[in-house]
């Protein structure tokens, strides 16, 4: 991954970290110390808002595909097509984990067709996938200890947080760095 990061910093390559987050319409409990018991309203938790995202660690640009059904190989192909349209004249590398729907023949074939390099992370290494930090940040900013009256308000809170990254730019710069600690 180091050579690809170096090329991305020099502007010779586009690099995206890809992963999905499945936001369940339920309570996200934050931390609280109190002497009295507090009750928080909570929805049923049967609906999910899925966001397959690609994060460019250099520009902090985010490309997403969202749905309320499932993230599968077709969703990954749709995301790759979006990225390929955005960056036509420069090599593209996508860093992915080993989810089955990302490491299948359909996705690998689509990547070859689009001229995209797929770089799979070692198993059990979420610390190397920078978009995991973004998902944690989104949950902290718009979901922890907050009640959303209905599913549409829940989705809007997530969408607003993702689209309003300019107001969080300084926080994201410190959170999303390319200095990895490996053992």
Structural class: alpha/beta
CATH topology descriptor: Nucleotidyltransferase, domain 5
Q: Number of DSSP strands?
A: 5
Which shape, going by the Cα principal axes?
globular
Helical segment tally?
6
How many structural domains? 1
Can you offer a commentary on this structure?
This protein is an alpha/beta fold and 183 residues long. It has a single domain (2-26, 45-175), classed as Nucleotidyltransferase, domain 5, CATH 3.30.420. 35% of the residues lie in helices and 19% in strands. The chain contains six helices and five strands, in the order H-E-E-E-H-E-H-E-H-H-H. The chain has helices at 2-9, 73-86, 105-114, 131-142, 151-163, 169-175, and strands at 14-24, 48-55, 62-67, 92-96, 116-120. The protein has a five-stranded mixed sheet with strand order 3-2-1-4-5, sandwiched between helices. Helix 2 (73-86) runs parallel beside helix 3 and helix 4 packs across helix 5. The longest helix is centred in the middle third of the chain and has 14 residues, at 73-86. The radius of gyration is 18 Å and the shape is globular. The two termini are 15 Å apart.
């Amino acid at each position: 991954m180091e050579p690809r990061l170096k090329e991305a910093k020099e502007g010779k390559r586009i690099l995206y970290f890809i992963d999905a987050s499945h936001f369940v319409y339920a309570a996200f409990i934050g931390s609280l110390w109190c002497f009295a018991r507090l009750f928080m309203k909570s929805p049923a938790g049967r609906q999910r808002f899925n966001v397959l995202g690609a994060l460019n660690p250099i520009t902090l640009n985010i490309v997403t595909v969202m749905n309320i059904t499932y993230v599968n190989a077709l969703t990954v192909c749709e995301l790759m097509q979006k990225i390929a349209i955005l960056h036509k004249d420069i090599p593209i590398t996508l860093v992915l984990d080993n989810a089955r729907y990302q490491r299948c023949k359909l996705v690998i074939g689509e990547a070859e067709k689009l001229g995209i390099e797929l770089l799979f992370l070692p198993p059990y290494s979420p610390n190397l996938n920078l978009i995991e930090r973004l998902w944690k940040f989104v949950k902290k900013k718009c979901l922890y200890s907050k009640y959303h009256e209905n599913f549409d308000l829940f989705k809007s809170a997530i969408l607003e947080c993702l689209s309003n990254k300019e107001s969080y730019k300084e926080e994201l710069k410190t959170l999303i760095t390319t200095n990895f600690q490996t053992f």
